[in-house]
Amino acid sequence: MEPKRAIFVSFPLTLKERVSEFVKRIEDQTRKGITWTCTEQIFGGEIMDRNIVKAISEADIILCVINQQFVDSAYCQDEALLSREKNKHTIPVLFEKVDWPLKMSDGTDSPLQRIFANRLYINMYNQEREAEQFQKLIETIKKYTDVREQGSGGQNRENAGDSRDGREGQNDRGNAGDSRDGGEGQNDRGKGGADFAEAFKGMQNTTNVNVSGQGNNVQANFNVTINKF
């Protein structure tokens, strides 16, 4: 039987190769199933693929791998918004230095600010602290998923991974390890967010996730479903 995909990774197309390596490292450390795909490559402007909605609904943890392209992407915004609506334990992982609180390329506030407000992030762009920060992420994943597997259910809100990663040149005010990802401010939506949330709000969770799209579905040898479109 295919293992349950405990982790969903949301990321922009520009980080696909780096995310592939990142996912492999996490899989090796946690032995947790991971679903990752690039929504930007599935449908150009169409409603979010129902398999993506299903994968997010079934995952225990959502990792948002952030650079400026993630912040500007309507698809990534929609995935992050859906993750909050589903009360998922969502962790921002910074692969590049960006403004915090998050801002769009044109300097306007990002819709993601409310999602990631008042929480710490995992800093993967500072090479001197990369190993330390990665270990904090692994500890967070293990602690949270282990509690879930013991039957605490989706209401558990462990403060599992405190990734206090300094304030290098920014006014860093995030909480990636903090699991306070409740439902406040749920009327805000990314581009198209209201449509896909309404369309799929009645979907039921199942055990296995197989994210697929228009193209070649490649199964890697480390229990990670890789979708290349």
Automatic annotation (TrEMBL):
<dbReference type="InterPro" id="IPR035897">
    <property type="entry name" value="Toll_tir_struct_dom_sf"/>
</dbReference>
<dbReference type="InterPro" id="IPR000157">
    <property type="entry name" value="TIR_dom"/>
</dbReference>
<feature type="compositionally biased region" description="Basic and acidic residues">
    <location>
        <begin position="159"/>
        <end position="171"/>
    </location>
</feature>
<feature type="region of interest" description="Disordered">
    <location>
        <begin position="148"/>
        <end position="195"/>
    </location>
</feature>
<feature type="domain" description="TIR">
    <location>
        <begin position="3"/>
        <end position="124"/>
    </location>
</feature>
<dbReference type="GO" id="GO:0007165">
    <property type="term" value="P:signal transduction"/>
</dbReference>
<protein>
    <recommendedName>
        <fullName>TIR domain-containing protein</fullName>
    </recommendedName>
</protein>
<dbReference type="Pfam" id="PF13676">
    <property type="entry name" value="TIR_2"/>
</dbReference>
<feature type="compositionally biased region" description="Basic and acidic residues">
    <location>
        <begin position="178"/>
        <end position="192"/>
    </location>
</feature>
